[in-house]
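Friendly challenge for the regulars: who can give me the structure tokens for this chain first? No prize, just bragging rights.
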Amino acid sequence: MTTHALLIAGLLLAGNIAATAQTRVFTREDTLRGSVTPERAWWDVTYYRLSIETDLDSQRIRGSNEIHYRILKPGQVMQIDLQPPLTLERAEQDGEALTFERMTKSVYHVKLKKPQTPGTIQSVTLWYRGRPRRARNAPWDGGFSWDRDSLGRSFVATSCQGLGASAWWPCKDHPTEEPDSQTVILTVPMPYHAVSNGRLRQVKQNDNGSRTFEWHVQNPINNYGVTLNVAVYEHFADTFQGEKGLLTLDYYVLPQNLAKAKTQFQQVKAMLRAFEYWFGPYPFYEDGYKLVETPFLGMEHQSAIAYGNNYRNGYLGRDLSGSGHGKGWDYIIIHESGHEWFANNITYNDIADMWVHEGFTSYSEGLFVEYFYGKQAAAEYLRGLRRSISNNSPVIGPYGVNTRGSQDMYSKGANLLHTLRQIVDNDSLWRAVLRGLNRDFYHQTVSSAQVEAYISQHTGKNLEKVFDQYLRHTSIPVLECRIEKKQITYRWASCIPGFDMPVKVSLTPGRWTFLYPTTEWKTMPARRLKPADFQVDENFYIHVDRVR
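First reply, four minutes later:
Bragging rights claimed.
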């Protein structure tokens, strides 16, 4: 995410979504939202031109979305997603009114009149209005946050991961669908500013005392990464000399927090240095980098990251790892910015694989620590995150029904990656794999299976069983071992059939070697091994049972 829902309050509020999914009966609405239906499959969005007018007093919006799309194969019915209480009012193509039917509470079928010729690009314009869903606990339970700043002025922002962008604008609301570019046009009353993704093209003063802000995103963007932010903002800017040249840094904060922001946001350049080292160039140089102050904790809105950590280090001042290494930096700046690589550059094509966003980004926190404080500090930080892992449902959720997996996707996902690094046992190769993922899946939507296959291929390790164990099952493998009669006997237990992960152990103080356990007992000589000297590398996320 989103923000790290490892915080106990976040867990309680979000609930164990994956556990619910195990017993939940999925509805037609779930399938229409979570799958590529026939009414979605024949067309591909190339561009959105979204225009919204916000009434701060009534907390209502009205607007339009001009959808440009490429026709992949014949089709005459288009699925458009828009969640209540918003309603679709009108649809047109080439100036001619179109009929539409509401199939479920959030799905409309728009019926096109003109022949849809494969290979051509067409457009449809949709008009809508209403009072959008109010966020109950943003960003975990999102929608519109209608708030007030400390001076009593309106302070408004959106958040919709999981909930979906269709909670506040009509679109093709499926993660496989990213437009090649997007324009967001926001009209708000004076003296308010409206901030969205990408670069500000123009500000227009209207006769009725409002202003219209036109933002443009040059790169592909996922739907939930599109954002609307309204406040009386103060803007300041900087630049960063990165791997692809000069990157613009823009900050939009409440005026009363300007001095604090100018100090706290200096961490952005440190973050960029570390993450460009580990992951490759920031993926959106054309659109710049922004932090935007919001009335909620944070969210990885592409090139316009939501920031609400109260200008404090840690997670609202706390170290989620308990290691002592999480208080020297601002959690929201680091975590949410990490999502620019894993979520916005590489995006899941089904929310069931949300660990690709959250596991890698939680792992990025440890890599940030390593870049500035060393490898040992990073390992302690990542191991400290294990205390929040519940192991009560799989990290990967059910596919095709817009349902994510367990909240363990954060810390368990991070510790899976930390474990894989130990298996690879080559830091240069591991870094090359992380950079390669962002290069070879640049601006793409992917599945977990693709990411898993890539890591196995590029490390030269068959990691299939390791991924299955940690992502699709709940138990943590147990290394059972027995030391007697000048030999060590060992095997994996509490694991899937065929599990064969190598593990690093010390048979002599100060020296490490690999064991290659399977689910069958193995024995090797250990004539000089004292039971007290036998150690298992704690950077592997496993349990150890010394059988007597």
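The longest strand covers residues 43-55. The chain is about 25% helix and 30% strand. Your move, everyone else.
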